[in-house]
Fold these 4 entries.
Entry 1:
Amino acid sequence: MLFLAVTLGFFVENQREHYIEKQRAKQFAASLTEDLKNDVSRFGSIISSREIKKETFNTLMDELEKPPGNQNDSLIFQITAENLLNRSNIIPSTGTYQQIKNSGSLRYIEAGIASDLVKYEGSLEMLEASFDLDDKYLIENVVKLREEICNPKYLRLKREQKTFIVSEPLVSKNVIIQLELYKALNFLQERNQIYIRQMTTTRARADSLISKLKKYYSIK
C-alpha cells in the first residue's frame, strides 16, 4: 500500500508539473506571437522605405550620368544632403525569446517551433551584421563624399533649418568626385538589395512562426 501511495503521489506530482509546463509554454507562445507580429509590421515598413530609397538613389545616379552643365544641382544637393546617410534598420522584439532562453524554458516549447525560433534568431543576427557593414562603409567613405559634393556652407544652413539664398554653387562639378559618388551609390544599391532580400526572408520566417504558434497552442 505504501508503495502504491508513493507511486500515485509521484504520478500526480508529475502530472501537475506537466500541466504547469504546458500552461507556461502557452503563455510564452502567446507573448512570442505578439512580439513576432510587431516584427512583421516593422519589416513591412522598413522594406517599403528601403524600396523608396532605391528609387531615390536611382534618381540621383541618373542625374550624375548627365553632363555637368545639364544636371539639376538642386536635386543632387537635396538627395545627397537629406537621403545619402539615412538608413532604416529593424529593432526586433526579442524580450520574450530572451526570457525563454535565459530561464532555460526553451525546453517547454514544441521542438519544431523551438528549432524555428533559433533559425529566426540567426536571421536577425544576419540582418544586424549586414546593417553594421553598411554603417561602416557609410562612415568610412560616404560621409566624406557628401561633404565634397555638397557646398558645406549650405549643408550647415540646411542642418540648422535656416532659409538661404543660393549665391554659390550648390554642388561640386568635379568629375572625379562625382564619379566616386556614383561608385558609392552603386555599392549602396547592391547592399540595399541584399538587405531587402534578407529582411524578406526573415519576415517570412516570422510569419511562419506565427502560424505554427497559433495552430499548436490554439492562440486566436
Entry 2:
Amino acid sequence: MGMKLIVLVVIVLAVIAVAQLMRVYELTSKIRNRREEDIDLRTNNINASLMMWFLAAFFGSLIYMLYKYGNGLLPEAASEHGQDIDWLFNINWIIVFFVFFLTNALLFFFAYKYAYNPDRKAYFFPHDNRLEMLWTVVPAGAMAVIIILGLMTWNDMMGKPSDDAVVVEIYAEQFKFTARYSGEDNKLGYSDYKLVNGTNPLGVITTANLTGRISELDSTIKEMHNDIEKTENGEKAYSLAASEKMVTKVEKLERILERVVAMQSGYSDSSDVLAEDDYMAKELFLIKDQEYQFIFRSRDVIHSAYFPHFRAQMNCVPGQRTKLKFKPIFTTAEMRTKTGNPKFNYILLCNKICGESHSNMNMAVIVGTVEEFNEWKKTENGNAALVVASTK
C-alpha cells in the first residue's frame, strides 16, 4: 500500500511539474514578444530533417516486420480454389504496398523539401484537369481489376459442382458440428427441423421417423393437457407464469404436430431410399483431389462453418440450406511435411460468436486417400466413430 501511494504521489508531482514548465514557457514567450505559433528557422529546418529520418525508420521497421512476420499464421492453401484466393490476396497486397510506399514517401519528402523558407514564395496552383483525371482513372482501374478477379474466383467457388462431386451435409448447433455423408447414391435424405428429437438429431425424414415423431408429439401434448386440467382442478399447483408458459408450449406443439401430419400425408415411402445409406460422423474425412459439395444447416442460431486451411467459409442459417464447394489437394500427412509440424491437423471452426461456448465449437478434419477413407469408415472408436443415421 505504501509503495502504491509513493508511485501515485510521484505521478501527481510529475504532472504538476510539466504544467508549471508549460506555464514558464508561455511567460517567456510573452516577454520575448513571440507568438506561440512562431518557430525560428533553425528549429524549422531541424524538424524538416527529422521528417526524412522518421521516414527511414518507419519504412525500415515495416520492412523488418514484413520479413519477420509477413507469412501470416496460415500455411499454404490446401484446396484448389484456396490457391486462387491466396494469389488474389497477394495481388491486393502488391497494389496496397505500392500505393502505401509511394504516397508516404512523397508525403514526408515534400514536408522536407518544401519546409518554410522566407526567401521562397509558394506557387498558386488551384486546379489541373489532367491530375484530376489521373488520380480518378488509376484507382478506378485498379479497383476494376480487383473486383473482376474477385468475382471470377467467387463464381468458381459458388458455381455448379462437377458431376462427380461428393455431397456432404454440415449440421451446426450449439456447440458442435455433425457431418452427414450422402452414401453410395450421393444423395442426402430429406430433412426437416420439426422432426428433430433425441433419436433423430438431424431431423431426417423417413416413414419411421414421421410415425415416431407424431407419436411422440401426441403423447407430449396429451400429458401437458392433463397437467393443465389438473392445475385448473386444483390437483396440481403451478405459478401463473408457469401455467401460461405451459399453455403457449402446448399450442406450439399442436401446430408442429399438425404440420408433421400434413408432411406424412404427402410423403412417399419411395423417398426412404435416399436416406437409407446416409451416415453421420463426429469428424470429417475428405479424399484428396475429390471435389465436395457441402450443404450447411443450423439447428438454432447463425453459425459460420470456417475451413481456414481450405480458404472456405459459409454461414449456417436456421431454416435455410447454404452451399459451398471445394477440392482438397494436400493430405494431412503432406501438410505435416510442408509445415514441419508432425501434429498438424485440419479443422472446421465456427466463425460466428454463437453463444458462451462458441470457442469450443469445432470439428476435426482429415484429408487422405480413398484407401484411408475406406479404412476410416470401418473405425468404431473415438471421434472417427461412424454413427448410422436413425433412418436405418
Entry 3:
Amino acid sequence: MHYVQLRAFHAVATYGGFSKAANQLCLTQPAISDQVRKLEEYFGVLLFHRHKRTVRPTELGEQLMTITRRMFAVESEAIQLLSESKMLRTGFLNIAADAPLHVIKMISEFRTEFPGIEISLKRGNSDTVLKQLHDYSADIGVVATRPIDDTVAIVPLRRDPIVCFVPNDHPWAQRSSIRAKDLTEQPLVLREKGSTTRKRVEEMFMGKNIKAKVVMIAEGREANREAVAAGIGIGIVSGPEFGHDSRLTALPISDTKMEMEEYLVYLKERKHLRLIDAFLKTVDEHINDPY
C-alpha cells in the first residue's frame, strides 16, 4: 500500500535531497515531495528536517531508513534471482522417470549447456510420475505407457526391442538369437507386477500360447540382473535396460516384434516455462539415440 511512498522516502534519505532522488527515480521533484508528504501525513510523523536547500532525516527517519535499506536490498536480490533464472543461469528442474537411464544422457548435455541449473531425478512407476506432474512436484516425466490425459503433452522418445539374457556359461550364450517358443518351461526371472516389461512379456506369452515357468520375481533391473547372473533363471528386459554386463549375454527374440516405448511428458499449461522449453530442445536432439 505504501511501497511508492517508501521508495520515495528511501531515495531522498539515500541521495540527500528531493531533486537528486527525483533524478535517480526518473520522476519530477514535486512528485517525490508529494509522496514523502503523503507518507508523513498518513502516519502523522516528521521524517525529514527541511531547511532551505538541505534535507536530513529525523531520528525516526534514520530508523526507517535502516528498515528501507534492508527492504530494497531484498528487492534487489529478488530481481537479480529472477533475472538469473530468466537467463537459465540458476534454477531447479525436477524430473520423474520410470527408467532414469533413458534421460541420463539428456541431463548430462543439458547440464553442460546450463551448469547453474540444479536437477532432481526421482524414480517411480507411470502412475506416480503422472501424479507428480499434476501436483507440480515434477516438471518433466518419462514413462513407458502413453498417458490418456488431455492435459499432458507427449513426446515419443524411444522404441526398443525386448531381449532375453542369460549368464555366459548358459548353453544359449553361444547362440545369436532365440525363438519365443524356446522360452516354454524355461526358468524365468521376471519383473514385478505393474512393470511395463512384464506386461509386454505376458502379452507375448499369451499370443504365442507359451507356458511360462516363473521361478523368481525381481523388482527393479538391478535385482533382475543379479538373479540371472546367479543362475536362477533367464531374464527378459528391453535392450537399453539390459545395457552391458560382462557376466551376461543378451539374445534377440527372432520371431516376435516385442518392443518397449518411452515417452517424455509434461503439463501443457507449463510449456511456456523457460526451463521446460530448454530441456525439450535438448531432448529433441536425442530422440532415438543409440545407447
Entry 4:
Amino acid sequence: MGALPDEAALVVARIEAMLDEAKRLIERTGAADESAFSLRETERRYLPDTLNTYLNLPPSSRDAVANELLTEQLRLLERATAHRLTALAASGRSDLAANGAFLAERFGAADSLPDVVPAATSGAVSALPPPRALVARLFSDLDVPGRSDPAQLLELAGRRFAAAFPALTTVRRGPFGGAVKSVALEVPRAADSLRYVLEAERGGVAASCTKVVRGIALRSERTDLGAWLHGLFEDMSAYVERDRAARDLLTGFLSR
C-alpha cells in the first residue's frame, strides 16, 4: 500500500496517541459507557475504514482533492476522539472519587489506622532483572566508539536481534548467504509498531525508523546511528516491560 499524505499521516499519529491513552484508561477502569464504546469503534472500525477507503483508490486518483478529503475526514475523527477521551477521563475521576468515599466509610480515615510494615521482597522477584537491564545487555557492543566497519555492525545486529526476537526481525543478505544488507526490527506498541531499519550504503550504514499502523507505513525518518540506537533501546525496553512473553524470551536468550 502507498503511504498517506504528510498532513494526513500527522493527524493519524495524533489520533493513534489518543486511542492508545484511551485503551489504557479502559483497561484500568473497565469503563463500558458510550465514550468507551465510541473510542473502541474508532480504533476497530472508523479509522481503518477511513484509511482503507483512501488507499483503495488507484494511485492516479489520489490527487490534491482526494488528499484534502481524507485530511478533513481524519480531522473530524481527531476532534471526536479528543471529545470522547475527555469524557472518559472525567468519568474515571468521578468513579475514583466515589470509590474513595466508599473506602473511607467502610474502613475509616487513613490516619486512624496503624501504619503498614513493609514485607520483605521475595528472592524470586528481586532476582528478576529489570527490563531495561535486559535490553541493555542485548545492545552491548552495538555502539562501540570508533567502530569503523559497517559490515561488522550489520552482522552483529542481525545475528543478535534475530536470535533474541526472531518473529520481529528481518535480515536480508546478499546472494548465496553473503554479507548482511539490511536488518529490520519491528517493535510492537499498544496501537501501532515502529520499524527500525539498518541498511548498508556506500561507505557506511543508513539508519531509519518507520511508524506502521495496521500494516500501513505512515512515515519514515532517517537518523544518525546514535539516535537510532537510543530510540530502539527506549522502545524495546517499553515493549519488554509490558509484554511478559517478550521478557521471558529475552531472558532465555541472554541466559544461553
